[in-house]
Amino acid sequence: MQSDKEVQKYTDLLLGAIKDSQAYTDYAEAREEILKYPDRKQKADQFRRENYIARNYSGDEAAGMREKLYRQRQQLRLDPVADRYLNAELVLCRLLKNSALQILNVAELDLSGMDDIL
After folding, report:
1. How does pLDDT run across 10-68, given as a tens digit for each residue?
2. Which residues contact 41 (CB under 8 A, 6 or more apart)?
3. Number of H helices and number of E strands within the chain?
């Protein structure tokens, strides 16, 4: 059985591995670049916010919200700085989500009915 200190040691190693990953490096570089352009960052942030809301919204307007977001994303794709940032963030978020889900699975937590939000 691992002690809590040993688990923390491995957690620290995992955090280091994440920080050394290609996904994190790409994200950090893209974030640094977009921060040079506050207007582009603001547009990307607005898209991210609205995307999060739409993905977690189940009302009648959900389809319309998603269509609007699709058009916004297509516009953002025309800006290479914003496109790179959003793509790099998505790759990093998927890496983090997959890691977190694997940890949760090992812990055997009962997460019944939460598949749509995890």
Report:
1. 999 999 999 999 999 999 999 999 999 999 999 999 999 988 888 877 777 777 888 88
2. 34, 35, 85
3. 5, 0
Q: Which residue has the tokens 């190693």?
A: 13
Quick count: other Cβ atoms within 10 Å of Cβ 18?
14
Residue 44's contacts (CB-CB under 8 Å, 6 or more residues apart) are 34, 76, 82, 85, 86
Flag whether the pTM goes above 0.90: no
Token look-up 């990307």 returns 44
User: How far apart are alpha carbons 54 and 75 in whole angstroms?
Assistant: 18
